[in-house]
Specification:
Elements lengths: L5 H52 L16 H12 L1 E4 L25 H8 L4 E7 L2 E12 L2 E11 L1 H36 L1 H11 L17 H56 L5 H32 L8 E3 L1 H12 L7 E6 L6 E3 L1 H17 L6 E9 L2 E8 L6 H4 L11 H6 L6 H11 L3 E7 L3 E9 L6
Parallel strand pairs: 6-8
Antiparallel strand pairs: 1-4, 2-3, 3-4, 5-7, 8-9, 9-11, 10-11
Amino acid sequence: MRITSVRARLLLWNIGMLTAILFVFLLATLLVVRGYLLTSIDRRLVGMSRWQTRIVEHIDDGERRLPPPPPPDNRERRGLTRMLRMMRYFDLHGKAITLTGEPAPANAEVGPPFDRAALRKAAAGALLFSFARDEEGPVRVLTLPMLRDKKQIGVMQFAVSFAEAEVMLHSLTLMLVLLVPCALVLAGVGGYYLTRQTLGPIRQIVEAAESLNPDDLSQRLPVVGADEFAHLATTMNGMLGRLEAAFTRLREVIERERRFTADASHELRTPLTAIKANTSLALKGERAPEQYREALQAVNQAADSMTHLVQDLLLLARSDSGQFALTLEDVDPRDLFRGATAVAGRRKGLASVQIDVADEVGMILGDPQHLQRLITNLLDNALRHTPPDGRITLKARREDGVIVLTVADTGDGIAPEHLAHLGERFFRADPSRARLHGGTGLGLAICRSIVDAHQGIMSIDSTPGTGTRVTIVLPVAEDAE
């Protein structure tokens, strides 16, 4: 069965790793203790063998004298007797002998070899340690050749009881084996609470994420501490912030498109209504030629308004889709200003227009047709909001590799709450007045699209009752630099 819970997997992994570590520790502990005990016992056996070897080497062959009898002290006598019982001497054929190399007396209490296999190997000159078992339990045996005058006369075996060490190892093993399940239980309980505490922030993040409302992305996940989970929550909060900003922009775009569609429909309905009204009126009965002419002129004017509106909408649509085609040429700012003032000069009763172009201003890199429309729209907008006794100034200067064009007027100005909306499509600061003068609310939107297509910058500053200043920054033609 596949375990899907992260908490359960972490807990099982922790218990499994701890189990493996504990068993490795148990095995290593037993091996170290056993090795220490063996080293201690083997050192004792080597000491006994050296003592006996010296005795064998210094026995007088003529007198065959044995070491002196044991001391009278009972404890030392028992210890010496025990030690002598753990020493046995055999000839090369496995028969018991004495230290002098003679056959052991018939009444001597000499047991069989502790380890017969080791005895045979020692008879061939080998020295080795081995384990054996006698009537008292397990023993550690040292078997080595018995030499006199560098000649092997037999084999010596020394044994030390291994029973106490075996009991100690058994007790240690039992204790460690009993401690392992206890440690695993404690590790499981501790691991459960530890993983629960560690994964608590994840649970909070999941609960907070599940409570998020798609209609309200302003909510944020809780950030607790400064660990990886806090970094995860911070990252997700950043993602939520970006999603909120994206959805806000999307809603704004949808609302703007909805408003744009409604305004466009309204603007198109006005000339269509005029056309329908005039044609219907002309078709009712017989009319004089002058009346037909007036009706046709009204229809023609409405058709022109509709044509201009549709062209403006198509231009903005191409700008939105990135298909704003430009034919880049070197354009003189003076020509732009003269063309715009020539169009404005056809109307009477307007404010005076003054052109101020700095010497050696250079040439603008841009599309002359679109740039001409840009300046004409700005000048037309300034004339529409400037009284006849006012003044409009068109300026051009060069600054740090760019050309700055300025259209400033001394008109009514624009209220601060309307400045942020300038450039929005079909926006009119004064709808009744703008419609009276024929404005559609697309002029500044088109101007911004033209400036953006030329990689330029357009800004508007205005003070009510004082006037408005529109500043445009455009790139300089390369051959003019």
